[in-house]
Amino acid sequence: MQLFNTLTRKKEEFVPMEPGKVRMYVCGPTVYNLIHIGNARPMIIFDTIRRYMEYKGYEVNYVSNFTDVDDKIIKKAQEEGVSSAEISERYIKECVQDMTGMNVKPATTHPRATQEIDGMIEMISTLIDKGYAYAAADGTVYFRVKKFDEYGKLSHKNLDDLQSGFRALQVSGEEQKEDPLDFVLWKPKKEGEPFWTSPWCDGRPGWHIECSVMSKKYLGDEIDIHAGGEDLIFPHHENEIAQSECANGKTFARYWMHNAFLNIDNHKMSKSLGNFRTVREIAKEYDLQVLRLFMLSAHYRSPLNFSADLMESSKSALERIREAASRLKDRCEAGAGIPLSDAEEKLLAEAAEFTKRFEEAMDDDFNTADAVSVIFELVRFSNANTDEGSSAAFAQALLDQLQMLSDVCGLILFPPKEDLDAEIESLIEARQEARKNKDFARADQIRDQLLSMGIQLKDTREGVKWTRI
Ligand code: AMP
Ligand code: ZN
Question: Which ligand 1 atom is the nearest neighbour of the CA of 232?
Answer without folding.
Answer: 12
